[in-house]
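S2.1 Query sequence (Rhamnogalacturonase A/B/Epimerase-like pectate lyase domain-containing protein)
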Amino acid sequence: MNKIATLLVLVAILSLRGAESRNHRVLNSVSNSLEYTAISCRAHTASITDFGGVGDGETSNTKAFQDAVNKLSQYKSDGGAQLYVPAGKWLTGSFSLTSHFTLYLHKDAVLLASQDINEWPVLKPLPSYGRGRDAAAGRYTSLIFGTNLTDVVVTGDNGTIDGQGAFWWQQFHRGKLKYTRPYLIEFMYSSDIQISNLTLLNSPTWNVHPVYSSNILVQGLTIIAPVTSPNTDGINPDSCTNVRIEDCYIVSGDDCVAVKSGWDEYGISFGMPTKQLVIRRLTCISPYSATIALGSEMSGGIEDVRAEDITAINTESGIRIKTARGRGGYVKDIYVKGMKMNTMKWVFLMSGNYKAHPDNNYDPNALPVIEGINYRDMVADNVNVAGRLEGIDGDPFKGICISNVTIGMAAKSKKVKWTCSDIEGITSGVSPPPCDLLPDQGPEKIKACDFPTQSLPIDTVELKTCTYRLHYM
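Output structure tokens follow.
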């Protein structure tokens, strides 16, 4: 796996040359400049060292980061501001960003998440979930957090954010947590967000969580956690509209990308779907979870998801739909093409019996609608089971279309290649032949399961080239 990982880890778009010099108050390099691409460039720049930051890996910088953001927020209406984090190990607890703001990490900068629990303020549970996921109470604020923001960039020259998650994983396994573990990066009720060109390590739980937000660009992330670490999902768009995830490499203890929109009665009441989502050029390694999961918290609805050019290696499942009675909501108009998989338990997995509920107040008659699921142009090898597709009795999953898919079974694969119940759909050019509930339409239908040709608004976003001479405050 190390060899595969070395070949597939994505290189950041541009490189930062030189190192910061506080004496000269500029970036001390040949060009004295910093260049990268972003949705917005800023008129003002400062370094974390201007606010007393110390990059020794031991001194807490929580106050320095929050003071820097608060000070730079004065430039929100004056061209915005950038906070530069130079080489070093910057220990910090949670801090919140501001609008029209860029956080930029040098290639040798490491943000180390504090293990002092007092540096993690507690928030109320998300309204679309009704409770925390680890505990019924609230949740610890994410390491990098923001709410009601617009135009925010978190980027770097492949700088690192290390969540030091082992501390949190131990507390989780021991049942010692009073609140849900923090994420590494989370934005709520926000728009025009870019998260790019970073390495995220050992998150306490989910790595990147945009929620109740729109116009989100996630690019060039390398996300790594032990494959046995609990709930270390890579990227989880949650009740979001217009999201683009591309060129990311993820090794995870949970789903590499998990699409969500609220949990049972709370998600139904909140009623905010995730829609207009693009996922492309994703590489996933996750032996116990999915490459792309839709649900299980999908009670606000999931619609118009387009995934292409996806690679999965030693991953439990390719595309997984997770739902249950009581979820309500819908998963519809899902399009996946150009997927390559190797060493999989399942290629296709759909479950209508994912029973985890927030409490006993859910409505068992709230049935999810699953329809318009399109998979095409896929190749898989060393697979145990081609497909396990299980709808809900009295609520079948409809409009399933699978075409031009070749699955090479493992030497010790299951005798039954497909398991199907309570589903309706068609196939064409699928090997091994699927179950009778997915009848083959013949070779003339090989181009069925059409992928949309019209672009989504997030694909029209153009990045600017930002160039700075770093004159600090």
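Helices lie at 2-8, 62-72, 166-173, 264-270. The two ends are 46 Å apart (CA to CA).
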